Amino acid sequence: MQMEIGLTKDKTDLMANLWPSHYGTLYDMGIAAWDKLFAHNPGLKKHFGFAENDPSSSWKNDERIKKMLLTEAVNTLGFGDTEALTSFVNNLRELGGLHRAIADGVNPDAFTLLFAILPEVIVDVTSNRSKDGPLSSENRSELLAIWRAITRFMANQVMTGWERNNVPTSSKYLKSYTDKCPNSSAGKPVSPTPTAPHPGFIPEKFRRQDY
After folding, report:
1. For residue 140, what are the contacts with CB-CB under 8 A and spacing of at least 6?
2. What's the rounded Cα separation, in Å, for the pair 65 and 68?
3. Is the full-model pTM beyond 0.85?
4. Which of 67, 82, 106, 140 would bridge 135 by S-S if both were Cys, CB 3.0 to 4.6 A apart?
């Protein structure tokens, strides 16, 4: 399993051991990641029902902002469960297929950018939340490389689901899909529709992460 992501067991062990146990960690990571994403592309706010030019931070109270699949990544990759990895990959691909179906006008590059933003956000929050104090420069550098590999893997799976038009079968996404696509065969895969290659735009700051 680790070989598919390019990480050895000692790397995934380090990632799991450094993950903050405080539940507020997910909220902090979600807020920071989406804040950066909206700063780079304010137009994405409208897809969540937020006004693009609204100076308020009301979007930070939205429950959807905290659903980042990061805990699932830690639990799956940190414990080397092959069955859990299969489920994790399926969830990521269904996430891609779901958003292609329900988020009119969203370009898949938004996911590419979000996953490019995440590693630095995760490491910053992990360091701030560490019960042993801020991470050493060595641990910080190593953890950043680990999360870049993980989020690159996650981004690839989401894009695969988008390109293949993966239809959600899990309860996690099925209701959102059937509400938007009532005439679909709920829970059953459909034939993928070819898509044009996307430009893969990533701001200069994030290009060094090899996305």
Report:
1. 123, 127
2. 7
3. no
4. 140
For residue 112, give both structure tokens: 């590419």
**Between 170 and 55, residue with greater pLDDT:** 170
Structure tokens at 71: 């805990």
Instruction: Tell me 7's DSSP state.
Output: -
Kindly state the tokens that stand for 181.
């696509």
| Alpha carbon distances (Å) from 19 to 73, 112, 147 | 11, 23, 11
pLDDT band at 103 (very low <50, low <70, confident <90, very high): confident
> How many residues are given for the chain?
211
Q: How far is CA 192 from CA 98, 101, 157, 160, 203, in A?
A: 13, 12, 15, 11, 30
DSSP 8-state secondary structure symbol assigned to residue 66: G
Q: How far apart are CA 51 and CA 126, in angstroms?
A: 31
Q: What is the end-to-end Cα distance of the chain in Å, rounded? A: 21
